[in-house]
Amino acid sequence: MSHSTTPSNAGTPSPETSFVAQGKTHLVLWGMAEEYLEQARSLCFVATAQSGSQPGWRARHQDLVLCAIKCLVACVSIESPSMTQLDKAKSRLRLAQVLFEETESLDRAEEEVSKAIIIADSIQGSSALEIQLRLYELQTQIYIETKRFRLAKNTLRIASAEAAKQELHCWTYQFCFFKARVHFMMDDVAGSLTTLNQGAALADQQGDFDIKMAFWIVAGQYSLMLSKWIQAMFYLQKMAPHMGVAELLDFTIPTASPTEDGTTLLPAALPSPVVLDMPQELDRQQCQSQQLRVFFLILYIFCMIRSGHVEKTLFALTALHGALDGTRPRDTDELQGVFRVFLKNRIDNSPQGRQQASPQQHNPAPLPYVCIRWMTFSQVYCLTYLLSGICSKADMTQPMKSQQFLVEGIKVVDREFSVNDYATSTIYVRRNQRWFSLLLMAMLLHLTDVYLVKFELDNAQETLLKATYWAQVCGVWDLFKWRISLTVAMMLHLGSRLEEAMDWYNICLSHTESHHQDSEGYEAKTLALINIGFIFSGERYYNHQRIVAEAKARHAVLQSANVRCALHILDGVTNEGLIPARQHLHESLKTSGNLMNTQLRSLSLMLLGSFYKDAHDAQAEKMLAAGFTHAAKTHNQIIAAATGFTLKDLYLQTSKGIKASEQAQRNKAFLDEVDRTFQSRVLDPLLNDSDNSNNNGSSNSNHNMPLISAAYHENKHTQ
Question: Where are the domains of the chain?
Answer without folding.
Answer: 168-276+286-305
